[in-house]
Design goal:
375 residues, alpha+beta, Adenine-n6-DNA-methyltransferase TaqI, Chain A, domain 2, Helix Hairpins, 3 domains, four-stranded antiparallel β-sheet, restriction system, Type-I_RS_S_subunit, Type I restriction modification DNA specificity domain-containing protein
C-alpha cells in the first residue's frame, strides 16, 4: 500500500487567520521530537505569516530536516508553518485516523522522508515523494488493536514525562523558597568573603591535541551540565603547567562569565581531570562558610541571575568580570542549614534519576513496539 493511497495532504489555507477567528499558530520550533502532543504555540495576534490551516485530529509532519522526527496530532485549530505538512486519512474505514501519526513515527517512514529530502543546509522532503512510501496496511481489526497498544504505551511515556516536569518544578520552587528565606533571615556577604579563591581559566591559548585532558569551553557547561562532546584536549604536560597554581576539583563551582550564555553555574561533582578557558570563572568555596552545591544553586537562582544581568557589561560579548562576581551578595545560612538544603536537593535528584530511567525504558519499549507492529 502506498501512503498517498490512504492519506491526503490538506490544502486548507487562510490568508487572514486573525480575521478568520484563528488564535494560535505552530512552527517547527513548537514541535518536540517523539512527542505527539503540541505543548507550545504562538499567538496569531502577535503577527504571523503562516497560512496553512489545521484542525483537531489532523497530523502535523515536519518536512524540513525530517531527521528531527517532528510529528504531532493537533488538538486545537490553528495555522502552521509552510515547513509542516498537514495530513489526514482519506477514508476512516480504510485507515484509522488514530493510526496515522504512529505510521509517521516509524523508522521506515522517517528513513523514506530523509532519503527523499533535497537541499544541503535545510533539506526538505516533498509530498510527491512521501506519497510513494510503501507499507503493509493491517486489516481494520488489527489497526484497532495496534492503536490501543501504542496508545497505552504512549500514555505511560507521557505520564512519566509529566512527573519529571512536575518534580523539576518542585525542585525549582524549593530552591527559590530557600534562597528567599535565607535572604530575609541570614546575614549577607560578598561571594569572595565566603571563598578561598575566585579566579578564571588560562589566558594563554594552549596547544590543543587530538586527545588527552579535556579543555572546557563555555559551551561545554552552558547548558547546566558537562557536555563532554564539546571539549578540546591538551596534553598531560600542558595540563600540569596550566594547573600549576590551582587545580579544579570536586566541590568547586564553574561559572560562565563571558558570552551570550553568561551566568550559568555548575558544581564540579566528578573527579575527572580537566582545565578550562578564561571565559569560565573558577569559584573555590571556603568549606567553613559555603558549600559548593549551595553556591551553584544560588548563582542559578533568580536572585543570582538578577545580579548577573545587572553586572554584565558589553552587548556583543556580555561579560561578568571577576571583580563583579566576587562582589555578588549571597545569603549566608549556617553550614548545617546548607547541608540540610543540599540533602533535600539530593533526595529530589535521586527521585528524578529514577523517573528518567523509567522514561528511557518506556521510550525504548514504545520505539520497539512502534516499529515491531507497523513494519
Amino acid at each position: 500500500m502506498k501512503f498517498g493511497d490512504v492519506v491526503r495532504l490538506s490544502k486548507a489555507r487562510s490568508q487572514d487567520p486573525l480575521a478568520d477567528g484563528i488564535e494560535r499558530y505552530v512552527g517547527l520550533e513548537h514541535l518536540e521530537p517523539g512527542d505527539l502532543r503540541i505543548r507550545r504555540w504562538g499567538s496569531v495576534a502577535d503577527g504571523v505569516t503562516f497560512t496553512s490551516v489545521f484542525q483537531p485530529g489532523q497530523v502535523l509532519f515536519g518536512k524540513r530536516r525530517a531527521y528531527q522526527r517532528k510529528v504531532a496530532v493537533a488538538d486545537f485549530s490553528g495555522v502552521c508553518s509552510g515547513d509542516i505538512y498537514v495530513l489526514e486519512t482519506k477514508d476512516a474505514q480504510v485507515l484509522l485516523p488514530e493510526l496515522l501519526p504512529f505510521i509517521c513515527q516509524t523508522d521506515a517512514f522517517f528513513d523514506h522522508a530523509v532519503g527523499t529530502s533535497a537541499g544541503s543546509l535545510s533539506p526538505r522532503t516533498n509530498w510527491t515523494s512521501l506519497a510513494e512510501f510503501e507499507y503493509a496496511l493491517p486489516p481494520m481489526n488489527e489497526q484497532m488493536r495496534i492503536v490501543d497498544l501504542l496508545g497505552a504505551i504512549d500514555e505511560q511515556v507521557v505520564s512519566v514525562a509529566n512527573a519529571i516536569d512536575t518534580l523539576s518544578q518542585v525542585k525549582a520552587a524549593f530552591v527559590e523558597k530557600f534562597i528567599s528565606a535565607s535572604s530575609e533571615s541570614c546575614p549577607t556577604i560578598a561571594l569572595a568573603e565566603g571563598c578561598t579563591r575566585v579566579t578564571d581559566g588560562t589566558h594563554q591559548p594552549p596547544t590543543f591535541t587530538d586527545h588527552g585532558i579535556p579543555f572546557f569551553l563555555v559551551k561545554t557547561i552552558s547548558s547546566g551540565f558537562v557536555d563532554w562532546t564539546s571539549t578540546k584536549f591538551v596534553s598531560k604536560e600542558t595540563y600540569d603547567e596550566l594547573t600549576r597554581r590551582v587545580r579544579p576539583k570536586r566541590g568547586d563551582v564553574l561559572y560562565t562569565a563571558v558570552g551570550a550564555t553568561y551566568g550559568v553555574a555548575l558544581l564540579v561533582d566528578f573527579d575527572e581531570a580537566f582545565v578550562f578557558q578564561r571565559h569560565i570563572a573558577h569559584i573555590i568555596p571556603n568549606p567553613e562558610k559555603l558549600i559548593g552545591r549551595y553556591v551553584e544553586e544560588f548563582l542559578n537562582s533568580r536572585a543570582g541571575k538578577r545580579q548577573s544581568d545587572r553586572c554584565a557589561i558589553g552587548s556583543a560579548q556580555p561579560t561578568v568580570t571577576l571583580k563583579s562576581l566576587s562582589s555578588f551578595k549571597i545569603p549566608l545560612p549556617t553550614i548545617e542549614e546548607q547541608k540540610a538544603f543540599v540533602a533535600e536537593l539530593e533526595s529530589i535528584a535521586a527521585a528524578l534519576g529514577r523517573l528518567e530511567g523509567r522514561l528511557q525504558s518506556s521510550t525504548a519499549i514504545r520505539a520497539s513496539a512502534l516499529n515491531g507492529v507497523l513494519l
